[in-house]
Amino acid sequence: MTQSPVGSAVPAAAGADADPHPEPSTRPAASQSLEDRYGAGRRRRVDRRVAWGAAGALVVAGVGFLLFSGWHEQNVVAVQDIGYTEVNDYSLDVKFTVSAPPNTPVACAVEALNTSKATVGWKVVEVPVTEDQDHTVTTRLVVTNPATAATARECWVIE
Questions:
Q1: Strand order in the sheet with 78-88
Q2: Which residues contact 64 (CB under 8 A, 6 or more apart)?
Q3: What is the pLDDT of residue 49?
Q4: Of 94, 107, 100, 106, nearest to 151 (Cα)?
Q5: Helices (DSSP H) in 39-90: which residue ranges?
Q6: Residue 13 CA neighbour count, 13 Å, CB half
Q7: Is 146:87 a contact under the CB 8 Å cutoff?
Q8: Which of 78, 110, 96, 92 shows the shortest CA–CA distance to 138?
Q9: Measuring CA to CA, which residue among 122, 128, 118, 116 is closest to residue 143?
Q10: Is 156 left (phi over 0), alpha (psi -120 to 50) or beta?
Q11: Average pLDDT over residues 42-65
Q12: CA-CA distance, 115 to 148, in Å (whole number)?
């Protein structure tokens, strides 16, 4: 036996390069890869196919939802205020334009406000059904106090 610099004895036959913990004899050969040992290569391929299939199904479902949910439907109703004319202290003529699909019944809520932005008049107006897409409507609105603003708040399709 030879003496090591730290003072411990090392067998001379083993030398400095010897592994102090030899491998057990049941361990497989070093040339065998992890994929062969655990079958990870095949499982990874199947997992990728499942992931791509799920992603494709989500895309198809999203496109189907957009096509059948009505986002492209032309039943969109828009309103644009033109103005109002004060007839007297207790009534106004409110004028606005409604854009809706032809031959579609539409109703609009018309509102008058005072200087405090409080509602002093309110009315629901049914727009006549016509072949035109744009309708200009003038309606008389009765108010409880003098109004400083009048607007068509919202329009919708009557079902």
A1: 78-88, 91-99, 134-142
A2: none
A3: 84
A4: 94
A5: 40-68
A6: 0
A7: no
A8: 96
A9: 122
A10: beta
A11: 82
A12: 6
Residue where the block lists tokens 């390069």? 17
Residue ranges covered by each domain of the chain: 42-72, 78-157
User: What are the DSSP calls for 127-141, one per residue?
Assistant: EPP-S-SEEEEEEEE
What is this structure's pTM?
0.54
Report residue 118 as tokens. 């409080």
Instruction: Say which residue the tokens 């361990």 belong to.
Output: 27
The pLDDT confidence band at residue 5, using thresholds 50, 70 and 90, is low
Helix, strand, coil fractions of the chain, as percent rounded to 5: 20, 35, 40
Lowest-confidence range among 18-27, 34-43, 87-96? 18-27
CB 112 within 8 A of CB 121: yes
Residue type, 41: G
Structure tokens at 12: 């001379």
Element (H, E) at 76: none
Q: In this model, does residue 138 exceed pLDDT 90?
A: yes
Class of 78-157 per CATH? Answer: mainly beta
The whole-number average pLDDT for the span 118-143 is 92
